[in-house]
Design brief:
Length: 266
């Protein structure tokens, strides 16, 4: 059993995730954010009354944890410039642990969530996927996750990469489809807001019942007339192709499910 003793944290990065951690750290008395590094220091100038800020990696303070919240393609080169005895952890879903070059206490502290500065995160129970070189560091980062109101998950690089891929489909692709829907609304003089109850119920039902039990619509009913009518209404060939591909996918999965249920009942 390890007790939480990692109070001194240096935050690295100025993106959405870094801002989330800053807001969490500054109100948590068990965490001491001693410094915030940003390559574009003007983005974090507002925080200099709360903590030290810098745009020089050579000026990083001695800390227990260096939390890297930068773009995936910057992690490796940045990590080679950090001289530290503490834990150096990146927060990316798709970057391997050994992407932190030359760090004996390399770690991953990946929160599975979407972050936006314009939309502060309200929910607790945030999943944190954790991987470390040192078993003791695993326990310490798990305690940090709990301090933030989250749920820690021990996860190796392959599982985390798979998790990240699924998250992209669920979140980024799902949001992209909503973006296309909003664009279609604008083109056809329809209020996007009218779909809010439908969108909320769709995702709530998928979580409550399981998405395999919540699917409705013309594809699963094999309503060919409605499908063709929808295709006739779509002038954008890109969206039309997406409609056809998703319809085919729904029908294929439904057919496979029916065959499986039929074989199990025989």
């Amino acid at each position: 059993m390890y007790f939480w003793n990692m109070t001194r944290i240096v935050l690295i990065g100025t993106g959405n995730l870094a801002f989330y951690f800053y807001e969490q750290f500054k109100v948590n008395k068990a965490i001491d954010l001693i410094q915030w590094y940003g390559r574009k220091i003007e983005k974090i100038r507002f925080a200099e009354t709360e903590t030290k800020i810098t745009d020089q990696l050579s000026e990083l303070e001695t800390a227990d944890l260096y939390l890297i919240c930068v773009n995936d393609d910057q992690i490796e080169s940045l990590s080679t410039k950090i001289q530290a005895k503490g834990i150096v952890a990146h927060c990316a879903g798709a970057v391997a642990l050994d992407g932190l070059k030359g760090q004996p206490r390399a770690a991953v502290f990946y929160p599975l969530q979407t972050f936006s500065k314009e939309h502060p995160l309200q929910s607790n129970d945030l999943p944190f996927c954790i991987e470390t070189k040192n078993p003791k560091d695993q326990s310490l980062l798990e305690e940090l996750a709990k301090l933030l109101g989250g749920i820690p998950y021990k996860m190796n690089g392959k599982k985390r990469a798979t998790l990240h891929m699924i998250a992209v489909i669920a979140n980024n692709f799902g949001n992209h489809l909503l973006h296309l829907c909003k664009r279609l609304c604008l083109e056809n003089d329809l209020p996007f807001e009218i779909f809010q109850p439908l969108i909320q119920e769709t995702y709530k039902k998928a979580l409550d019942l399981g998405p395999e039990h919540a699917q409705t619509g013309p594809a699963i009913r094999n309503d060919l007339n409605s499908i063709q009518n929808h295709l006739d209404l779509l002038s954008d060939e890109h969206i039309k192709k997406l409609y056809i591909n998703l319809t085919t996918s729904i029908q294929k999965i439904h057919e496979q499910s029916q065959l499986q249920n039929s074989s199990e009942s025989n």
